[in-house]
Design goal:
This protein is of the alpha+beta class and 333 residues long. It contains 6 helices and 13 strands. A hairpin with a 2-residue loop joins strand 7 and strand 8. The longest helix has 25 residues. It starts with a helix and ends in a 7-residue tail after the last helix. About 4% of the residues have low confidence.
């Protein structure tokens, strides 16, 4: 190789190395999830290394589309905790990308949100100092923060209004609304279970839908549980219609109102009413799972992903409830 070619290749290599060293840094981006409860630590992620001595603060600029804009400056909250060199998967230009940066927690429990509003919309901004120079990161999108109590009470009130309208329509039909839960004059455990699951899931879905103004992601295990309840109700209804064995005992008048005790009494044998362990078991698992679902969904800030082990237990419980209906006992006359 000639000297001139060697010098040219060396210069080209030096130029490529220099260009790589002066490549522009990645722009600073702020990521904050929608619909976080202000009673929980608010999570903010920035694709930049921020240390404790930089004293980052979260500033919230209100949206004044409805409320008055005559307020003080943006609400400012100092950080509570931060973790450096964290990796988080974020949606950027419609793609899920792993981003490295700093995860920060802020306490916004004192952030003023009117009681009648489930959420407050604002533009989040984080400011910090680095070597005497102030840096700012602003979210590309406005986000919502949920007022914890109103976020669950108002959707419950809306759900009760819808339920009241359905009950009113039932009365207009000339039939008592309790018939929704009855089969042949007896309070049906399967119908009661379907009703409870429908109301509780609808409540939580409506609550988180209003918090984020979009349909929340519904866990697959929750869909499976609802499907099990509907399948149990359908099979139970068809078997009762087929066998016609759900008959009131002889000591109950035909015009007597349904009783709560019907939920744990088996009327599959004509003229008798026996306490059923399988019914009691199904009722216990249903109530416990519903209670856990509501409590966990409220306190975790998202729809609870019911463990599959619990789904299996519910399925076994419902199978034991259906077994006597599919193979009803025979009586000797």
């Amino acid at each position: 190789m000639s000297l001139s070619k060697w010098i040219a290749m060396t210069m080209l290599l030096n130029c490529v190395t220099a260009l790589a060293q002066i490549a522009p840094e990645q722009p600073i981006q702020l990521f904050m999830a929608d619909g976080q409860l202000k009673s929980h630590p608010i999570r903010v992620f920035i694709n930049h290394d921020i240390s404790d001595d930089m004293q980052p603060k979260l500033e919230l600029a209100r949206n004044h589309a409805i409320t008055s804009s005559q307020t003080d400056g943006p609400y400012s909250a100092p950080y509570k905790k931060l973790a450096r060199q964290q990796t988080s998967t974020q949606q950027i230009s419609g793609q899920s990308i792993a981003v490295t940066g700093t995860l920060m927690l802020f306490d916004l429990k004192n952030y003023p949100v009117p009681w009648y509003k489930t959420v407050e919309r604002f533009t989040p901004t984080v400011v910090w100092n680095d070597g005497g120079k102030q840096h700012t990161a602003i979210s590309e999108h406005e986000v919502y923060i949920a007022n914890t109590l109103s976020a669950f009470i108002i959707p419950l009130a809306l759900l009760m209004a819808i339920l009241s309208a359905i009950l009113w329509l039932a009365k207009r039909s000339g039939r008592p609304p309790i018939d929704f839960l009855c089969n042949n004059g007896v309070l049906s455990l399967s119908r009661t279970q379907v009703t409870l699951w429908t109301l509780m899931i609808a409540w939580m879905v409506l609550a988180y839908g209003l918090m984020r103004l979009e349909v929340p992601a519904i866990p697959e295990s929750l869909i499976a549980l609802m499907g099990l309840s509907l399948a149990t109700g359908g099979i139970s209804y068809m078997q009762d219609e087929k066998t016609q064995t759900s008959v009131l005992p002889a000591n109950r008048a035909s015009d007597l109102k349904p009783q709560l005790s019907d939920l744990i009494v088996d009327y599959s044998v004509r003229g008798q009413g026996n306490l059923s362990l399988t019914r009691a078991q199904m009722l216990v698992w249903t109530l416990l799972t519903l209670l856990l679902f509501v409590v966990k969904s409220i306190f975790e800030g998202d729809l609870w992903n019911v463990p599959w082990e619990l789904v299996v237990l519910m399925g076994l419980s419902q199978a034991s409830y259906l077994a006597p209906k599919i193979n009803p006992p025979t009586t000797n006359n």
